[in-house]
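Following up on my earlier thread - several people asked me to post the actual chain instead of describing it. Fair enough. Here it is, all 204 residues.
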Amino acid sequence: MNPVQVAIAVWPWGAYLSEEGLKRGIRAKVSSYARMHVNVQMVRSKCSGQYVNSFLANREAALSGFDEAILLDPQGFVAECTGENLFLVKSGAIVTPGTATILEGITRDALLTIARDLRYEVREAAISRDQLYAADEVFVCGTAAEVVALREIDFRRIGTGVMGPVAARIQKTFHDAVRGRLPEYQAWLSPVGVARPEALSSSS
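Reply from S.P.:
Thanks for posting it. Predicted structure:
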């Protein structure tokens, strides 16, 4: 039997969608590429081959001058972005697509918990493209992106054109939670020890 060994590499990671995007929000477009139909593959799987769909949509968005793409599902409802789950805010309530056609992200789950802890009304529902345009706020989340607002979609300004108060509050709470500043979310964190230099040299 081959022994199984695991290594975790750690290095400084800047803002995935830029520092400016983290603070002000980013620009997105609805992609001409649809999210894969649920019977094309096991779309609940987070495997590398699934990301070809996202790469095509992301490249199309970038060539059109946008920061990110929004994928619709085969029925034409909003699914997710190329690497993030999506939320909209309307009249103080937070709405996010149901789980049937999306990748159920761990960061999405964290934000649902945070939003409810902050006493926001949260529901899963089908979202149409024009509901995005008419939203007070739209924001996305993912392991790399963390929490980022969408200030513009398809050349249409969302809300006031900057990150809204709901997204800002959830973003701050999330950042505090994952950095160990909030005791109520300590169970989400796993301390990682640092290998001693002599251990590294002896294994080389």
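Residues 165-178 form the longest helix (14 residues). That should answer part of your original question.
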